[in-house]
Amino acid sequence: MVPPTAVAPPALGTPEAPAVKEPVKDTILTPRFYTTDFDAMAAMDLRPNEAELEAICEEFRKDYNRHHFIRNDEFDGAADKLDPETRKVFVEFLEQSCTSEFSGFLLYKELSRRIKEKNPLLAECFAHMARDEARHAGFLNKAMGDFGLQLDLGFLTASKAYTYFKPAYIFYATYLSEKIGYWRYIAIFRHLEKNPDSKIFPIFNFFENWCQDENRHGDFFDALMKAQPKTVTGLQARLWCRFFLLAVFATMYVRDVARKEFYEALGLDARDYDKYVIAKTNETSARVFPVVLNVEHPKFYERLERLVTNNQALAEADQSAAPAPLKLLRKLPYWAANGLVMAKLFLTAPIRSEQFQPAVR
After folding, report:
1. Is 352 helix (H, G, I), strand (E, B) or coil?
2. How far apart are CA 59 and CA 99, in angstroms?
3. To bridge 42 with a disulfide, which of 89, 108, 115, 122 should be the other Cys (CB 3.0-4.6 Å)?
4. pTM for this model (two decimals)
């Protein structure tokens, strides 16, 4: 991918001239940047579901949130009201969210550019989604500036490793990313509507409109998969849908429990919040995926908790003063244990989507 024109970073150290924050070290839990087979994307036949894709593109053209992400005076001094620990976990949340949104922008923008001549409808949809993701990333990065820090997005573009996913994997991963983003944001928004005293920063006022962008993006990938029936039919599709559902749910659960202090600052329990988001995303996925996970299985969250415990042990090994070879030896049993847990989760019988019944919550 060709990085955008570099922008000179601002001077360091104040909210007016934020310090450029060094990106966090890449781990299995941090957002990734993706690339794909652009020729295969350009050659896709949209005719099996072209009418729905055109209708979604028309929704994108209206750009409902064009005037929504505008900062107001509520942001003035809001960062100064947070205690040091809350500031720390909130900045981590902003950084992770900004990186994730920027990753989406880069992928969608490059797809739009590379397939424009051969597949103009698909290219236009990706261009509109890139616009939305850029808007989200910029808004989050501006919020980081309230804390005297900002990400150098140009540096991230050039320095991040890109993971190659073939188009079908892009569909599964981005569909889930957008839909789980919707449920994450709307759950926080509704909670803070009922508990305004827990609204630690004014950015949460924007989450209702924000999550509608995520929902529209997810609907686009739903329609795109229906236009490519092989992505959601057959044994291979069932296996890959299970894999991506598990990967997304397990990553979110382990990451959120590890930074539970952020959710506590909002008056939420990280585990209860994630269980709700997982259940709703699983339910939503049944509308397009041929199978979904049995997240009500008595062993499902017990096994996710083992991943949490193993991840804590891996983090402690990383932070120890032991030599690198000894760190590696200490980490091997936990990596193996995580592999076994993930295998057990994957092999748990899924639920056919046509037989799926949402749990009452």
Report:
1. strand
2. 26
3. 115
4. 0.89
